[in-house]
Write a structure and sequence with these properties.
single chain, 255 residues, alpha/beta, Rossmann fold, 6-stranded mixed β-sheet, 4-stranded antiparallel β-sheet, 10 helices, binds adenosine-5'-triphosphate, ATP binding, ATP-binding, nucleotide-binding
Length: 255
């Protein structure tokens, strides 16, 4: 049994098909990237895996638990970071972390230990008593990541969580994710930026128009695309069969 099993998954919003019959197994203990251009269905897929959004048809299980009927159970071992994290701007990071700790009933000694460890690893100790609303984008993103890790989840789902970070912040977060996965935990994150997927993920699924165009390690995708080039962008274009380079590249690049 894979950690996450997705079977015949379809999600429609009215006449729009966001997920078009996806079947996918995701093993635990790795960093898994969902790569695709805007509107390809990444957020929808991550929300369904997280039990936030019900599918139109098909099923998802996480650690054997159905994502619709067992959403409450999944929530206990899930850390979810939405595309635009909702942070209390008028709280300080330490107040926000304590609030999350109380929601998850974490005892105060453990909570303190985790807050100290994460804030030190992500280098935000000096901002712990500043209002969240006054912090930079990258620091807010680090606060969101810590708040999702504080209850020691087995699964971390990050929707575009690495976009827009400066190189130092993204390196630090990459190391944190690597450490998290090395303990047998699973990270799934979405991005439309090739370099991020290429640098961070053990496995990549390419999502395109609600379909999986390819899944595997970069090496496997390269083989499937019949490409000698390690450039994920070229592999993407070959697997999706999209020849409209200008349009596609524009949608993939961080504008
Ligand atoms: N609540 C909604 N109501 C109607 N259509 C929606 C809704 N949410 C998403 N869609 C549509 O479903 C498709 C997939 O959207 P989704 O947000 O999952 O893609 P995405 O890959 O995460 O995009 P982005 O990179 O822009 O965040 C798009 O066509 C989008 O317009």
């Amino acid at each position: 049994m894979s950690f996450i099993e997705i079977k015949d998954l379809v999600k429609k919003y009215g006449n729009t098909t966001a997920i078009n019959n996806i079947t996918l197994d995701i093993d635990g203990g790795q960093i898994y990237g969902i790569l695709g251009p805007n509107g390809s269905g990444k957020t929808t897929l991550l929300k369904i895996i997280s039990g936030i959004l019900p599918p139109t048809s098909g099923s998802v299980t996480v650690n054997g638990i159905n994502a619709v009927t067992g959403a409450d159970s999944i929530k206990k071992f899930l850390g979810y970071i939405p595309e635009t994290p909702a942070l209390y701007e008028s709280l300080t990071p330490i107040e926000f972390f304590n609030f999350i700790g109380s929601v998850f009933n974490i005892d105060s000694a453990t909570l303190k230990e985790r807050i100290n460890a994460f804030s030190s690893a992500l280098e935000i100790e000096k901002y712990m008593n500043e209002f969240i609303g006054s912090l930079s984008f990258g620091t807010k993103q680090k606060v969101a990541i810590i708040s999702a890790l504080i209850h020691d989840p087995q699964l971390l789902v990050m929707d575009e969580g690495m976009n827009g970070l400066d190189p130092r912040s993204s390196r630090i977060i990459k190391e944190l994710l690597r450490d998290f996965a090395s303990k047998g935990r699973t990270v799934i994150f979405s991005t439309h930026i090739m370099e991020i997927a290429e640098n961070v993920c053990d496995t990549i699924s390419i999502l395109y128009n609600g379909n999986i165009a390819g899944t595997g390690s970069l090496e496997k995708l390269k083989e499937e695309a019949g490409s000698n080039n390690t450039d994920l962008e070229e592999i993407f274009l070959r697997l999706t069969g999209d020849n409209d380079l200008d349009t596609l590249l524009n949608s993939l690049k961080d504008l």
